[in-house]
Amino acid sequence: MSGVLRGATAIVGVGEAGIPVLSEGATPVDAMALAAVRAVADAGLSLKEVDGVFAAGLQLFMPTLSLSEYLGLTPRYSDSTQVGGGAFLAHLNHAQAALAAGLCDVALIAYGSTQRSGGAKFVTHSEPNPYERPYRVPGPVAAYAMIAARHMHRYGTTPEQLAEVAVAARAWAGLTPGATMREPLTVAEVLAARRVADPLGVRDCCLVTDGAGAVVLVRADRARDLARPPVHLLGVGEAVSHRSIAQMPDLTVTAATQSGARAFAMAGLAPAEVDVLQLYDAFTVNPILFLEDLGFCAKGEGGGFVAGGRIAPGGALPMNTNGGGLSYGHPGMYGIFTIIETVRQLRGEAGDRQVAGAQVGLAHAPGGFMSSQSTAIFGTAATL
């Protein structure tokens, strides 16, 4: 079946709204709806044509119902799979299957958050872990600090190498209109920044912003006749390994080894054929592990791999080309923005940050405490 799905669907519209902060009184549904309207318009379609709705969120209990009601949609297919920040890449997998089966004709994937403007009023529907809660583990940052510390202990990864990820992201953000943090950043400044959870400082951690994103998919035969150059979905892979950080089998290995292998197998491609990649960078250690687990370098070599500007503008492997969650924006769940930036790069619409000749793009995002992993590979028409 994977061979049948390769290139069978394409993203034809993308939209964003609300980064870094929404207008006063805006809700997550407001944000999500605005991004959705923009994505549908970008595709040259109308809202009444949307018959598949996919959504997830931290603040919304039934996001597909809320979004459909808000926009007056009556979808015949909906999916609110919630596996954390990478849920929207998993939605790509589900949407391509639904489109191929004729269960819907126009699939909308959307997300919205008021994490920044909500401030102390921010409420998540994520359930507490009864086994970890008594120890007052301070959320994701503590879990990812443990991952970083273990990688440093086992492989000799250094704070300077982690800092290279943040510095490269900031350099890309400087080329991106609308990025939240655009001023230059140095390795020394990352290392000198206030500690949050050792070995991670504040510049090793993602931003806290509002924001929303949406993408529209249709079958490939229809995509050829729409307003924008189609960006074809060549391969998708999903994997789940655990829920709580205490149950992660190995703090230095993620299930991206599985999701990536599945995506590359469906796409019929290898890491060396990827021109541009977006790796969810909630913390600087994340891309280092993903580069290893997706096969861009060997296990334990990720720290050295990102050094020397390899992933920065002008480097051999352009990564997180809008500035990522570290410098562009991070409204709680960043995964959908890895898709949107990949689409813009493959359309050739990225302006000063455009990667010349980009034909194949990869987006990857985790969920929870590295609990789920989702990988998607995209290509221009030339890759079919």
TrEMBL record:
Transmembrane segments: none annotated. Residues 237-380 form the Thiolase C-terminal domain. Pfam families: Thiolase_C_1 (PF22691). Gene3D superfamilies: 3.40.47.10. CDD domains: SCP-x_thiolase (cd00829). It comes from the Bacteria. NCBIfam families: PRK06158.1 (NF004811). This is Thiolase. The lineage of its organism: Bacteria, Pseudomonadati, Pseudomonadota, Alphaproteobacteria, Rhodospirillales.
